Amino acid sequence: MDKVRIGRVVKPHGVRGEVVVEVTTDDVNRRFAPGSQLDGVQGTRGKTLTVRGMRPHQGRMLIAFEEITDRTSAESLRGLSFYAEPLPEEDGESFYDDELVGLAVHNGLTRIASEGCGPSIGHISGVQHTPAGQLLEVLIDEGSNLPNAGRSVLIPFKRPIVPIVDLEAGLIVIKPPEGLLEL
């Protein structure tokens, strides 16, 4: 498997070279541990940085690097995306954002015998990481009979609501609580 994106520098923080990183991995402590070497890409440039320290801050992480010691240097990292080899799955229940984006979304509350998993209502257009957990951004199909056809809705990525993720079939099945798809 190719490398996966594990985070992106949003902006500098303070005057000592820390940066705000939007993390897209569920193993922050392992990926961004002090001493770790991170491979980054910014436009067409590649850059390797060594983590000096990290700490949580307002739902994101503040990361300090050995090579970056002031705000001016930190500013030059804005937009840098970090990539790494996928971690071996320990429980089979972890998914990378890149694996989820594009999957068809089927409503499991309504069954279609030929599909066995309910009608397709749209596809995953993004994944948001919040302090409360991951949210799947679902773009509802224009032809859907839902009131928000053509717009995006956010679905909590929790087992009771998303009981099936089938990467091979390219789909997920949701069982949304009443009203969730009408928001």
UniProtKB/TrEMBL annotation:
Keywords: Chaperone, Cytoplasm, Ribosome biogenesis, rRNA processing. InterPro entries: PRC_barrel-like_sf (IPR011033), PRC_RimM (IPR056792), RimM (IPR011961), RimM_N (IPR002676), RimM_N_sf (IPR036976), Transl_B-barrel_sf (IPR009000). Residues 6-84 form the RimM N-terminal domain. One of its GO terms (cellular component) is ribosome. One of its GO terms (biological process) is rRNA processing. Residues 98-180 form the Ribosome maturation factor RimM PRC barrel domain. SUPFAM superfamilies: PRC-barrel domain (SSF50346), Translation proteins (SSF50447). It is found in: Cytoplasm. Its main location: cytoplasm. GO terms for molecular function: ribosome binding. NCBIfam families: 16S_RimM. HAMAP family: Ribosome_mat_RimM. Binds ribosomal protein uS19. Belongs to the RimM family. An accessory protein needed during the final step in the assembly of 30S ribosomal subunit, possibly for assembly of the head region. Essential for efficient processing of 16S rRNA. May be needed both before and after RbfA during the maturation of 16S rRNA. It has affinity for free ribosomal 30S subunits but not for 70S ribosomes. The PRC barrel domain binds ribosomal protein uS19. This is Ribosome maturation factor RimM. It comes from Corynebacterium heidelbergense.
